[in-house]
Structure formats: C-alpha cells, structure tokens
C-alpha cells in the first residue's frame, strides 16, 4: 500500500504557529519542532497500524478507516475521531475532548515524501517526511 513504510520528519511548514493555536506552551513547541519524529505505517486493507517514535515517546496506534478512536497528542491533548480515505489521501477529523474544537489532518504520499497537513482554528501547517 502507498503509505506503508517508515517515514522520518524532514521539515516543517508553519508548524510552530499551528502548535501555538492548539494552545501548546512555548517550551513544548520548541521541543516538538525538533522531535525527530519517525512514523512507521502498515496498511492492510482498511486497517492501519501506526508506530510513532520521537525523542520523547513511542506510541502505537491501530485504527480502521471510518471507525472512531481516541488519541493522545504528545502534549497530552486528548482527541477523538476517525481517519477516512479520499482518493489517495488519508483524512482525519478529530474533536478535542477539552474544548470540542475540530482538528483536521491529512496524509498524502507525493513522490518519496509523506506530507501531513493540519488545520486547526484557521491555522494551516505541514510536516513533510522522507522515506527512512
């Protein structure tokens, strides 16, 4: 499958502004910008297994497309939502448990890069990963 493989963060676009909009404090934003995040994705039909490894934590997530699940961001923000497939793009719509606001995330493979885009309260950001 297209998303299968290990992806290492290469660069960020407007990521700090996005984290600020999310309410993440300055110290955590600075750490997150240099977290050396690595994502390993294994897709089997509509089921995904994702392992996120960074300087700060390792987390494994299993989800099925279209099925709600709960997720905790590295800063402790609790979310609930689901991933769906729109063409070649994974799209996640998640609701924050603390304030009910929506975070939209997409993942698409472009060449040898995985582009993960975020939108929260009108702020857009991207994290671009290279196959690693």
UniProtKB/TrEMBL annotation:
UniProt-recorded Gene Ontology molecular function terms: retinal binding; retinol binding
Organism: Amphiprion ocellaris
The protein's role, per its UniProt record: Cytosolic CRABPs may regulate the access of retinoic acid to the nuclear retinoic acid receptors.
PANTHER family: FATTY ACID BINDING PROTEIN (PTHR11955)
Source organism superkingdom: Eukaryota
Domain spans labelled Cytosolic fatty-acid binding proteins: 5-22
Keyword Plastid: no
InterPro entries associated with the record: Calycin, Fatty_acid-bd, ILBP, Lipocln_cytosolic_FA-bd_dom
Alphabetical list of SUPFAM superfamilies matching this protein: Lipocalins
Gene expressing this chain: FABP2
Keyword Electron transport: no
Protein name: Cellular retinoic acid-binding protein 1
A Pfam family recorded for this sequence: Lipocalin
Keywords: Retinol-binding, Transport, Vitamin A
Similarity section: Belongs to the calycin superfamily. Fatty-acid binding protein (FABP) family.
């Amino acid at each position: 499958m297209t998303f299968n493989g290990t992806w290492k963060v290469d660069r960020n676009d407007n990521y700090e502004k996005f984290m600020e909009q999310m309410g993440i404090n300055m110290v955590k934003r600075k750490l997150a910008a240099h977290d050396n995040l690595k994502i390993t994705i294994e897709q089997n039909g509509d089921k995904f297994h994702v392992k996120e490894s960074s300087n700060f934590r390792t987390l494994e997530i299993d989800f099925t497309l279209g099925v709600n699940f709960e997720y905790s961001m590295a800063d402790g923000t609790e979310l609930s939502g689901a991933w769906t497939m729109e063409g070649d793009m994974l799209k996640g719509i998640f609701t924050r448990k603390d304030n009910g606001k929506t975070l939209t995330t997409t993942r698409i493979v472009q060449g040898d890069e995985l582009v993960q885009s975020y939108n929260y309260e009108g702020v857009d950001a991207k994290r671009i990963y290279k196959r690693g």
